[in-house]
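User: I'm new to structure prediction. If I give you an amino acid sequence, what do you actually give back? Let's try with this one:
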Amino acid sequence: MSTRRSLLIVAAVMLPLAGFLWIILHRKPAPRASATAPAAVAPPNPAHERSALEEQLKKKPDHAPVLMRLAELDMEQNQPAEARKRLERLLAVEPGHVDALLELGRACYAAGDADCALARTAEILKQQPNHPDALYNLGAIHANQGRFGEARRYWAQAVKEAPDTDGGKKSAAALKQL
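Assistant: Good question. You get back a string of structure tokens that encode the predicted 3D arrangement of the chain. For your 178 residues, that looks like this:
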């Protein structure tokens, strides 16, 4: 058998095999369940989470992350007075905690105490003068009280300093509505 004919036979056999291997190697594998990850994530259970967090709080009453999460759950369940108590306790342990101050401002406002909301949210600006969420919230509180000039000032600052953040985007949208 000639060398040329042998090469043609090998090529005739190898080309389809190479194409098959190329397809196998370049196709995306089908997603499959991992042994370490559950097939489906169970929906959150706030009552169970709250119970577990309360148990943690019994062991360490001033645990800031636990107090913060419980306050968030309180706000989700429309209990701003409870959230306010937890956040004030957190701030007694960690004065100046920006996330707690922001959430406390929201809780105060939701509980009907606009003066507390303004004061606590303004405390953030002492630490971080251009905090976009604090600027947005201050603008919203002022707008809800009919002080549109003040609202416009805070929102414009948020847009100027942090236009791509959530607070900056909400401020831009609010300015358009004024």
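You can read the tokens as a compact description of the fold. Here is one thing that stands out. The chain is about 75% helix and 0% strand.
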